[in-house]
Automatic annotation (TrEMBL):
InterPro entries: GASA. GO terms for biological process: gibberellic acid mediated signaling pathway. It holds the Pfam family GASA. Belongs to the GASA family. The lineage of its organism: Eukaryota, Viridiplantae, Streptophyta, Embryophyta, Tracheophyta. The keyword Hydrolase does not apply. Keywords: Gibberellin signaling pathway, Signal. Transmembrane segments: none annotated. Residues 1-26 form the signal peptide. This is Gibberellin regulated protein. It comes from Arabidopsis suecica (Swedish thale-cress).
């Protein structure tokens, strides 16, 4: 029994969409885990640190190791600036 073309298209679309969702979820959780470590000893509020770190991680695809310093491991993360010209990324 042959499946109609519409059903085949629907199944393929569903598989591709779910695969994309899994990949995008994996990226955000990777940032979250790295940012939790990065912000564990932050001077400012933990929530503010996580928010900025997540933004930087999503744009740069990396977070420096440790809770402070090591920004040379990720030049994009190091070089992002906030509106006042200071470092955007914790």
């Amino acid at each position: 029994m042959k499946m109609p073309v519409v059903v085949q298209f629907f199944i393929i679309s569903l598989l591709l969409t779910s695969s994309f969702y899994v990949l995008s979820s994996a990226d955000s959780s990777a940032c979250g885990g790295k940012c939790s470590v990065r912000c564990s000893k932050a001077d400012r509020t933990h929530e503010e640190c996580l928010e900025d770190c997540d933004i930087c991680c999503e744009k740069c695809n990396c977070v420096p190791s440790g809770t402070y310093g090591n920004k040379d491991e990720c030049p994009c993360y190091r070089d992002m600036k906030n509106s006042k010209g200071g470092s955007k990324c914790p």
